[in-house]
Inverse folding.
């Protein structure tokens, strides 16, 4: 029986501070890549809860989402996987520099837009630069555009 197709739902935090953007450097298959703090939505959590968790796990920063930046659909050219990314922007409200980072994450780093453009060959996906460009263009959607309907707590 053929398995039904479904996209991989992911979240990402787009954070700018002093003209630099928060990224993570991660090792993927022996390559070192840049990404926003990002990851997969887990069963039972809202999109907002997921982006807060992922940012903390990958950077040690506590992220407070303030707006939905956009929803991005990207079919990866190899592997037959499609990602549906919900990107959020917001503020950092705390940091635990001693917190161990997720497996594969080498470090959190801050890059300018120029540094990001110069390192595009090392980006995990084209969504990284696109999300930053949308942030710089002022794109913002209210968080209440997302409804997390929990039938048990509605």
């Amino acid at each position: 029986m053929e398995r039904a197709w479904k996209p991989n739902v992911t979240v990402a935090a787009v954070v700018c501070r002093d003209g630099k953007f928060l990224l993570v450097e991660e090792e993927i298959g022996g390559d070192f890549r840049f990404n926003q703090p990002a990851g997969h939505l887990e069963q039972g959590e809202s999109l907002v809860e997921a982006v807060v968790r992922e940012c903390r796990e990958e950077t040690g920063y506590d992220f407070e989402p303030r707006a939905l930046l956009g929803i991005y659909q990207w079919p990866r050219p190899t592997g037959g996987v499609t990602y549906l990314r919900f990107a959020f922007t917001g503020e950092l409200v705390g940091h635990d520099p001693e917190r161990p980072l997720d497996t594969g994450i080498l470090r959190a780093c801050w890059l300018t837009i120029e540094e990001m453009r110069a390192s595009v060959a090392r980006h995990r996906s084209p969504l990284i630069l696109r999300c930053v460009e949308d942030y710089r263009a002022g794109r913002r959607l209210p968080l209440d555009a997302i409804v997390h309907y929990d039938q048990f707590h509605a």
Notes: The first strand starts at residue 8 and ends at 14. The chain has one domain: 8-144. The mean pLDDT is 94. Helices lie at 47-59, 113-118, 127-136.
